[in-house]
Design a protein that fits this description.
about 110 residues, mainly alpha, 4 helices
């Protein structure tokens, strides 16, 4: 049970301190609402759940890496900045992949409504 406590503490830390994590949570909620509205199929739900999970996990890894780099290198360091940039790039890739998945799932349903 303590491990779950620590994991939830990490989630809470990310939620309280990282605006991007909060934005991803809000977008995830909106996408889930859209999924119910458009009555997406099981495989589409699986794709959406994987996409949401990938982005949130990437953001959490990014937060962990940034926090660790700040501890190890509190003063400006070009290589420390590069490490943070690479971690942010991973989040960007996950977010772009999720946007593509969202387009694949939702665009045909939106076109049907027109």
């Amino acid at each position: 049970m303590k491990r779950f406590k620590y994991a939830f503490r990490g989630l809470l830390f990310a939620f309280k301190t990282q605006i991007n994590f909060r934005i991803h949570i809000i977008v995830a909620i909106l996408v889930i609402i859209a999924g119910f509205f458009f009555k997406i199929k099981l495989m589409e739900w699986l794709s959406i759940i994987i996409a949401i999970s990938l982005v949130l996990a990437a953001e959490l890894f990014n937060t962990a890496i940034e926090t660790l780099v700040d501890i190890v290198s509190p003063d400006y360091n070009e290589r420390a900045g590069l490490i943070k940039d690479v971690a942010a790039g991973a989040v960007l890739i996950a977010a772009l992949a999720s946007i593509i998945i969202g387009i694949i799932v939702f665009l045909p349903k939106m076109m049907e409504m027109i």
